Amino acid sequence: MNLIIDIGNTNTKIALFNGNKMLKHRSYSSKKVMSYLEDIIRHNKPKYALISEVGNKLTGIENLFKKYKVQHYNLSTKLKLPFEIDYKTPETLGADRIALVAGAIANQPNTNKLIIDAGTCITYDFVDENNVYHGGAISPGIDLRFKSLNDYTAKLPLLKLPKEKIPLTGYDTKTSIEAGVIWGLVNEIEWFSVKYNLKYKDLTIFLTGGSQKLLDSYIKNMIFVVSKFILLEGMNSILNLNK
Question: Across the beta sheet with 71-74, what order do the strands follow?
């Protein structure tokens, strides 16, 4: 059995796989996850683990793996990957982007793919039909856009995403900020999608991340493969290659 641990800045996602099949998955606060992790390992007895550390390291995790004899790996470009990397600084490539590309390949091998991850940042990653990763783009996510308008202006308020639909034309300062942030991001994603579609034939576009559900409700003109677990599936495919 494989144990997958994706450590984020706020939450840590944990999944158990048997081969390529996900058996369990859950998200915990990154500050409290260690109190649950030993129970998960003790009850499920995984033999192998892969860790992605985008956020802080989990103190004591090495001792926990040693105690239960779990062979573990840290996700990086030093591992055997299901794709080649044509990127000038592979050592700077984030573990989350590596996992997303691997997950897209596991879902759609040997096709041109654009993976859009809408989280704290919006990342765009392109891998071609020969499973060669070329790079992409990084821009601020929804919360960062709201925060920057408050941080770098004297009078604009700090807003959070409202539950109701955002109008195209803001009728006051609050709704004007909301329209600029949300519709600006929607148009950014659509623009990248159109440009990649024009450049690469038979392109599959994946949309994932914490803001995926919201953005999917605004973007009506593009066809996306929506995959909630693409990162975890990608990590598992990498672990299967290396164990």
Answer: 21-29, 11-18, 2-7, 48-53, 71-74
